[in-house]
Amino acid sequence: EVQLLESGGVLVQPGGSLRLSCAASGFSFSSYAMSWVRQAPGKGLEWVSGISGSGGSTYYADSVKGRFTISRDSSDNTLYLQMTSLRAEDTAVYYCAKDRERAVVSPKSFQHWGQGTVVTVSS
Amino acid sequence: DIVMTQSPDSLAVSLGERATINCKSSQSVLYSSYNQNYLAWYQQKPGQPPKLLIYWASTRESGVPDRFSGGGSGTDFTLTISSLQAEDVAVYYCQQYYSTPLTFGGGTKVEIK
């Protein structure tokens, strides 16, 4: 059974930094692209960033480019999102999502999702 | 970036009746080399993460009831619930994966009339 467990969400001040983690199990982690998708309170879904199975290719939304960095560690099957220069508009539930298709480079559709971790940016 | 526009924003349908949600992309998401539309549909219930319903615009994910169907091509797509059940009350999102940044529609809330 595929499991994705996010952690690291907290209350942080504007301008601060944070690292989110997503522990993955139940599948061949390095074979699948992974993404972070966020949802602001009462709003829709926004794709934030994606990474290929090998970690060699990364992709970002314009809203986070230059501030967030996605990475993965296949030795412990964990996906990360390093977030810097945080703004109030980054406040959201952050979901880790696994691609449906094996061995694709760029992220596509999301077959499995974690339960999310809450990031609140406020003074 | 490809902009995804859903309509309507909300929809109230009687139990057993048909619900249709529309999704329009600002440019074609049909990859002609593979003749595939890079379009997915998700269902999100309150307090839960989204659930993948449809991919490649019309392929139902395993375990999804056959009352859910996806159609369309190029820039215009639909998600149809042929006979609405109480458990289908949710917000539905379309998403294009033709190019990054991946983008979602704004969502359509489906309720019981």
Structure description:
The complex is a heterodimer of chains A (123) and B (113). Chain A has 123 residues and is mostly beta strands. In chain A, 0% of the residues lie in helices and 53% in strands. Chain A has no helices and 11 strands. In chain A, the strands form 2 sheets. In chain A, strands 2, 4, 5, 6, 9, 10 and 11 form a 7-stranded mixed beta sheet that branches. In chain A, strand 9 (92-102) and strand 10 form a beta hairpin. Chain A is globular and about 40 Å long. The mean pLDDT of chain A is 97. By secondary structure, chain B is mostly beta strands. Chain B has no helices and 13 strands. Chain B is globular. The chains are: A mainly beta (123), B mainly beta (113). Chains A and B meet through strand 5 and strand 10 of A and strand 6, strand 7, strand 11 and strand 12 of B.
Quick structural overview:
The complex is a heterodimer of chains A (123) and B (113). Chain A is mainly beta and 123 residues long.
As a whole number of angstroms, the C-alpha radius of gyration of chain B is 13 Å
Count the E strands of chain A.
11
Number of separate helices of chain A: 0
Query: Which residue ranges of chain A are poorly predicted, with pLDDT under 50 across at least 5 consecutive positions?
Result: none
Q: Which outline of chain A best applies?
A: globular
Shape of chain B: globular
Mean pLDDT of chain B, to the nearest integer, reads 97
Instruction: Calculate the mean pLDDT score of chain A and round it.
Output: 97
